[in-house]
Amino acid sequence: MKVVIAEKPGVAREIAALLGATEKKDGFLAGGGYYVTWALGHLIVPAMPEDYGVTGFRGENLPILPDPFILTVRKIRNDKGYTADSGAVKQLKIIEQLLKKCDSIIVATDAGREGELIFRYIYEYLKCKKPFERLWISSLTQKAIRQGFENLKPGSDFNGLYHAAQCRSRADWLVGINASQALSIAAGSGIYSLGRVQSPTLALICKRCLENKNFSVQRFWQIGLEHRKEFIDFKSISKNKWEDKKKADEILKSVLRAGIATISSIENKNISEQPPLLFDLTGLQKEANKKLGLSAEETLNIAQGLYEKQFITYPRTGSRYIPEDMWAEIPNLVRALESSASCKDAVSKVIWGRFNKRIVNDLKVTDHHGLLITGKIPSALSAKENAVYDMIALRLLEAISQPCVKEFTDVTLQASHYDFMVKGCKVLEPGWRVIRGNFSDDETDAAVELPELNAGDELKIKNAAVLERKTKPPVLYTEAGLLSAMENAGKEIESEDQRKALQGIGIGMPATRAAIIETLFKRGYIIREKKALIPTEKGLQVYHLMKDKKIADVAMTAEWEIALQKIENNEVNADDFQKEMEAYATSITHELLNTTENMEQLPVLLCPKCKKYHLIIRDKIVKCPDEQCNWIQFRSVCGIQISVEDIERLVSKGRTSLLKGMKSKAGKTFNAYIVMNEECATHFEFETRKSYKK
Prior knowledge:
The protein is α+β, with helices and mostly antiparallel strands. The chain is built from 19 helices and 29 strands. Helices cover about 35% and strands about 20% of the residues. The chain has a seven-stranded mixed beta sheet, sandwiched between helices. The chain has a seven-stranded antiparallel beta sheet with strand order 17-14-15-16-13-12-18. Strands 26-27-28-29 form a four-stranded antiparallel beta sheet, with no helix packed on it. Helix 5 runs antiparallel to helix 17 and helix 8 (about 280-290) packs across helix 9.
């Protein structure tokens, strides 16, 4: 008898159907000489500090360096702390009983670091010694599963993958637990969270936000001209930029007096735009955020669902290529899309016999190839699922199409001894851009029609004006922008040597970046304002404390990603990496414990209602610790965060300062005070002195 362990029930059912394991049992399926069960994600996880006998946040206990690391059943949080997840306990017992009955194991968890770790932690926790093989597939179609079972691989082939996953898990524990406790102790109140990838990611967001906020806008002026030739209107703009408007006005008069602009030079060049490669997970998340407004986590969940329904290949991939042996399958996938209502028209634009093989590269396929559709065409999907599926399908059609060839024209004109410029763009061969009918990515390469122009031509100036321009601050991160920054973290490094060494190296893995961003939201470190990611008061507070410390160092985090990859390839010893992480955790712990500057000094405030207990001040609420009193004030009101200073004013003086930029349920912006009455209830008081209850 063999036991097959999948990651989720849905995947287990697909595998069981192929193997003939059709008899439904509690927590598994049986039949055909197989027991097919599932893990429900991470059933086994590294133990908490309490499991090592370390309770509370006390500086003398730090750093906590487990030797050995203990594994435990997944826990959930309740009012009394953490307790074992009953669902995890039940499923683990089922797996344990099945492993005792079987002769061997087939590992069918997701084919990647985390999938490998899920199984190995169960295997280690249960002290199992049974031999195991690995099912390694990139699609859940019956064909792919069948081929996978025909080509099972020895479990030992994936020891490097397991060691890399284990090192990642332990590194996150060592840094996260120790740094978080140290920072919380240094703060003196409140619970703060730091992490190996979380903290440099927060640093990216805060740094960009402060650069944007502190940016000094500079005004300058240019002169714009309007022309007409061969019934075509077009514009030119001065190459000069003037900081003095009076100077620009004087030159404008001179240009108008001349009335003529002479073409001094014309340069034409053809540019061949290669089609985009297939999506990897990060690429899909970026595109879905830009085009659909989906968060990274939403996109991952949708893609995972499409995979489990057999509509796309494995989504948690970091590759944008396919191996040579898959190329023969591509025409079949394209033909399958002819029956898709949303893709049928795009398929008709594909040129058969001229498929572009740019996506084929054996050397650049890692654990999994780039995202592809399967031959199974979706039905009964939600609008968001359809949109993400179409993105993947259309990207395939673009990737196999020919380059788009454009002719760019740079024209220089002279008027009153000043140079003006105009740019034109003409599509010569639409190539891959015909699939979506979108011929430009931004304004810089948008098609601009120009008449036939020659050097020496004189053009009448129909109109001219001084145009005010402003320098633009660094753009706030959207999730798409942040994912790009995480993916290319090396670009943020100031040292040129380090930047070159870490070129193309990111922080976090494609499969984990969404979870990192969501963690920052859950911790209250960042919020969304429309599409922009903005640090909260707490997030900025943590950033100012850690910005000059190792834990915020993007370069170091990127170097760890390189080390983990080498462990996976059996090029670096896992024990050496763990020792390095222990040394780092020790160092950052001491750094943080010895730092109290920049922490928000919270005032000691007596409860205004019972006048017996000091108020507990948290990020989201201020409350009395006495349950009978139960006085509470939320700090987030109508879209703004009430500062500690205003909380102090409210409690001591009965009213805050004027709070600006609040939004009503109807979406209207208003300003108001928060005022406390004699019963210690709070309400709005407007500048007009009219009030209403919150």
